[in-house]
Specification:
421 residues, alpha/beta, 7-stranded mixed sheet, 5-stranded parallel sheet, 14 strands, globular
């Protein structure tokens, strides 16, 4: 791949698929590997099908079938859960008389209050590890507390199926059986996760995670177009954090979200600070910086560089308050992280700085007013989360983000408090 310093701007998933092929064309070697890899994946898909239907005796649901008890399983944190909320809302509406239990392995992330506040489930259980332990071919429940949970239908929203982690998928199927399920949906194995060996061609197999729920809805006999793109109101407005004018109305504001799970996904703090200055000085918007308690140093540094015009809320809001702060904002500037998906689903004007360590098609969000900015270079598609290679996010200058903000203004999506100079 030629490192030509080109910055790309995307407003649709289709654009990304085309541009990535221009930057990194499919070679003859890629084509050969894809052919053999496809056979490899087909074999594992067949193994899972046999495992599911003949060993576990689980089947797919019939259209219109009624279920008394439904278990919905997640594995992940804020973004992993949020991207599927439109589908969850449709499932709740369809099975309004069913008892729906949500089990989420959130890896320690405090997500239970958020799940409960969505008002889509009768019961919510947050766990911190895989519920099933495997020892050779022997599987056992990690916790006896699951004995009171019953499932006629098990719906698997865990992202491991999409990422191709075969062992996780097999255990999740076993978990469904242990809960007494007769029906199971959710397996969409797209490539087998073999680490660096598959890096060269994994981008040709991965499917978009935020849109994977469309497959699950179809498996339930539901129409994905009936899933409304939105996030339910989960909290009263966090008025204690937001400035008001003399008349008592909330001052228009923008949100900056500088954190991310991995440091390699973070745009430079100095760049965020320049955007903060622009939003305040040129657009007349108040600026709030959001993030977790661990990201408080990032927020403090941006506020300091911005001359203390921005206000850092990092670690000061609950997850429920964060959702409503995003909902009330005029604009969000963020890295590729959970709040990005929340903002996009609520159709807030959002500019996202994406790294290219993996194909952007994997996590490209769902939303009408989301713009992605990315830079492809010689180390793109490295699947490196540890920062062992250069990720070059600093090459996406603040001016590229400002251009997209002004594009929102030109298109009438964003209205500044006063005119841009």
């Amino acid at each position: 791949m030629t490192d030509n310093f080109k910055i790309d701007v995307f407003k649709s998933l289709e654009e990304i698929s085309e541009i990535e092929l221009l930057h990194a064309p499919k070679t003859k070697l890629d084509s050969a590997l894809i052919f053999f890899y496809s056979i490899f994946i087909y074999i594992f898909r067949l193994m899972l099908w046999v495992w599911l239907h003949f060993f576990l005796l689980l089947r797919g649901p019939k259209k219109g079938e009624i279920f008394q008890n439904i278990v919905i399983y997640f594995n992940g944190m804020l973004g992993d859960v949020s991207v599927h909320i439109p589908a969850l809302t449709l499932i709740r509406k369809t099975y309004k008389n069913s008892i729906i239990t949500c089990i989420c392995n959130s890896e320690g992330f405090p997500i239970q209050d958020y799940l409960i506040a969505l008002d889509l489930f009768d019961h919510c259980i947050a766990i911190n590890s895989q519920p099933v332990i495997r020892n050779g071919f022997h599987f056992s429940m990690r916790d006896s507390n699951y004995s009171n949970i019953k499932a006629d239908l098990f719906i698997n929203f865990s992202p491991y199926s999409n990422r191709g982690v075969l062992g996780f998928v097999a255990r999740e199927m076993v978990f469904a059986k242990m809960l007494g399920a007769k029906c199971y949906v959710g397996d969409t194995l797209s490539f087998y996760g073999t680490g660096r060996f598959s890096n060269q061609i994994s981008r040709f197999f991965v499917k978009n995670e935020p849109r994977r729920s469309q497959f699950i809805l179809r498996s339930l006999g539901l129409n994905p177009s009936d899933a409304v793109c939105d996030i339910p109101v989960v909290s009263s407005f966090a008025s204690g954090f937001i400035k008001k004018n003399a008349a008592g109305s909330v001052k228009k504001y923008a949100v900056i979200n500088p954190g991310a799970k991995f440091a390699v996904k973070r745009w430079p703090i100095s760049h965020f600070a320049q955007i903060s200055q622009y939003l305040h000085d040129q657009l007349g918007l108040e600026v709030y910086i959001t993030g977790s308690k661990n990201e408080a140093p990032l927020g403090d540094e941006i506020a300091k560089l911005d001359g203390d015009q921005a206000i850092s809320l990092c670690g000061k809001t609950s997850l429920l308050e964060l959702v409503e702060i995003l909902r009330g904002s005029e604009l969000i500037i963020t890295n590729d992280t959970g709040p990005m998906h929340l903002a996009s689903l609520m159709n807030r004007p959002t500019v996202v700085i994406f790294g290219t360590r993996m194909s952007l098609t994997h996590w490209y969000p769902v939303g009408k007013y989301t713009t992605i900015i990315a830079h492809y270079h010689q180390d793109s598609f490295s699947f490196d989360d540890l920062g062992l290679k250069e990720h070059r996010l600093e090459r996406i200058a603040p001016s590229f983000v400002i251009d997209q903000i002004e594009d929102f203004i030109t298109r009438g999506i964003l209205e500044p408090t006063y005119n841009v100079n």
